[in-house]
Amino acid sequence: MNPTIKQVTQNIIARSQGLRSAYVQRMEKQAEQGNARAHLSCGNLAHAIAACGQQQKDRLLDFTKVNLAIITAYNDMLSAHQPYAQYPQLIQQKMAELGHSAQVAGGVPAMCDGVTQGQEGMDLSLYSRDLIAQSTAIGLSHQGFDACVLLGVCDKIAPGQLMGALSFGHLPTAFMPSGPMPSGISNDEKVAVRQQHAAGEVDKAALQQMENKAYHAPGTCTFYGTANTNQLVFETMGLMLPGSAFVNVNTALRDKLNQHLLSHMVGITRGGSAYRPLYQVIDERAIVNGLVALLASGGSTNHTLHMIAIARCAGIIINWDDFALLAEVVPQLSSMYPNGPADINAFEQAGGVPSLLRLLAQRDLLHMDATTLYGKLSDYLQSPVLVGEELKWGPAQASNNNHVIAADGKQFNRSGGLQVLSGNLGRAVIKTSAVKAEHQVICAPAKVFDCQHKVVEAYQQGQLDQDIVVVVRYNGPAANGMPELHKLMPVLGNLQKQGFKVALLTDGRLSGASGKIPAALHLSPETAKGGLLAKVQDGDMIYLDAIKGRIDCQVTEQELLQREPVADSKTKQDEGCGRELFNPFRRLVGSAESGATILFND
To answer: Which of 1, 340, 376, 463 could form a disulfide with 458 if both were Cys (CB 3.0 to 4.6 A apart)?
Structure first.
């Protein structure tokens, strides 16, 4: 194994020893209690089975039978989650065929970041992850289950479900993906029309027509943002069947994989020799494997938050330094939009996750002995295929599109797609996989804003036509929930296209779609908690070096200390659109470096 991978894993194990030991002991104690349903009182059981048909009642009262918990994030506003409408019924039918049972243990909220981008509702997006974790735990707290299947794909939803499920880590647990939608228009066309609209060259009707062609059917959006990063990383961590993340929605292969997963879940429940509880799957090796896959694929910067929070729920402590060390030895091995023009369907056609894992295994960058719900990670170097009506797996093949997944011995970039930046303002993360080398170092004057909408207004008034580092502060977790700042990308992209040197510096976030602009994100400590970004002024020279990992305001330490911090200009941002209900989150939320969660103290 690569020595850096080994060393980072050992560092995590040593750092987490006490916390991880306590978590494992808690899970073992829950497992030792045996069938939880058998411990319910007669009244408890009567309530649990009251709405069931007689056959299902009989199975639920037979404690040798498996009862599968379904935690669903269904709604029909999310294209990726709309297919889940029929999943509970299909799952229950298949489990009944197998002689067992399934019940919907609970539903969790599932907001679409695509719908709320640039709107007030986006202020609730990051907070929703922890609420989803709590909702998942509430569903499973009925204690009537032997295993769990999670129906969730997107953004904060799937990480939140996993975080909640880890409190019930004695249960075998798996994700059942819905799959991506078919490809619509090209990503290059999508970006071009957005930039044309930002520049006033096309009207809103043309923009709407383009967007409707890009997002046009049931299934996951096809660009490589947070939703698809979830799927790639979680498959690598062994939380779904091999090769199942990106099989298209509503296809025969998708249906066969779902049915096979249910049969497999029955076989790995407690009491059998193949018992595979979640707490044994999510260990330090799985976490490192997930980080490696994130870096190699140029995945979403949101996972510099989510992976820290997920690991903490399993009693494991990781930090941004782990990301930085791994990025030094993990090359970028795939190229998907925004890192390149291809979408997730092209990635799947090129070989998908199994082909990517094959390349990583060749470089000794994975813990191949890591436990998965299906065996060991070595079992994930295979791809599913239908032979007639029969589901089979074959060995992962070399990439058949070297523009999307690298050829053997080749790579798109020497280092992984994420970098950690440090300097006199704090620490930040930057996604480098889509940023050209000539744009990775910039020194330019700051233009300071508290709101992305003000940036757009300034651009429209011609105030940004220069070499510039756009600073957007008071957008961290405690300020306003750390909304994604995607309205900035067409604007900054146009400035870069005009020949200006452009960068973004913010304590906010951009997920997987930061594109070609060097963007220092998640700056910590955030402005609302005393971060020095509150003292940055228009005209201050900002130096960003994504190669050496530096971010500095080129003002003397003495002058920075003497300056008075500038207060947030946004007013009443905690009112309206339900935001007033989340004031406790603003008070309790931890820093970006600790996962931006309310569930644990920094």
So the answer is: 463
